[in-house]
Specification:
alpha/beta; seven-stranded parallel beta sheet; three-stranded mixed beta sheet; 14 strands; 37% helix
Length: 336
Amino acid sequence: MPSGTLPGMEGETRIVVTGAAGFIGRPCCAALCDAAARHGVEAPDLMTTDCVAMPTQPDPSAKSAGQAHRQGDIADPALIESLFERPVQRLFHLAGIVSGRAEADFALGKRINLDATIALLERCRMQAEQGGPVVRFIYASSIAVFGTPLPSRIDDATQPLPTLSYGTHKRAIELLIDDYSRRGFIDGRALRLSGVLLRPPVANGALSAFNSDMIREPLAGRDYVCPVGPNASLWLTSLRCAVGGLLALAQADAAAIGAQRAITAPALAVRVEQVVAALGGIDAAAPGRVRYQPQEQIVAQFGRWPLNCRFDRALALGLPAENSIDSLLRSCVEPA
């Protein structure tokens, strides 16, 4: 295997990660570097970008800073151009404006989620049409593409019908990825992520933040008021599975994915009361710290996910999945 290449990347050298300083971005970058170390090759030529600097404090993912970091606005054409100063082989597009913030500020959500992503796709197309490599474009999509009222079952044949601006942005980009891939401009694939645990307590506008709060707060010894009831049903996954899914999808054979490039990542479909009860296996007092005050807006969008669901395409492609609530919670509390 040539120096500096990873499995499935023979001859490839340059990887770009947007949103690289974020909750998923940092461990994704770290995982790319770890994969290189496991296979005895040099760290990848990694270009990271985010609107903030990469963390410099001691951290398991500090090595994810890569060889270069560009701090700036992903919607800035000059920033996008700087990411392509040398030919790009893979691009993990993780930057975005999340659900509640995109709903509250339509212009911001459109500029980052739609306009900037289209500009990235166009820059990839330009590279291909100028004789450069076809970029393998890996996009962090969301189960927000399934709107309310949610169907009683979701599987690979379920039609996405988003009812939030965020979900609409994600679905629009999924369709463009299909079309750009069909035309040979990119080799695209999109991964629809569910509630990824355990997010830090940062106010980023995510309406689904309670997924993490209802675990973190009781285990930290604090009382927590949950905005959905005990019978609410959720789709949850771990950070390790989300990152592992992105990397596995990046490695997957395009023919195995097929013409529809959006894949719904495996999730654990559970009721809130099951999660809260399972907290007792870590701290017997934790379940007693949770009380409920349902908010209909939150319940409608995030508390009625069907327990009847299948993720056959993702599993066939080898994407990882948590197999129990206990395993999911252990991933939240164990060191990385």
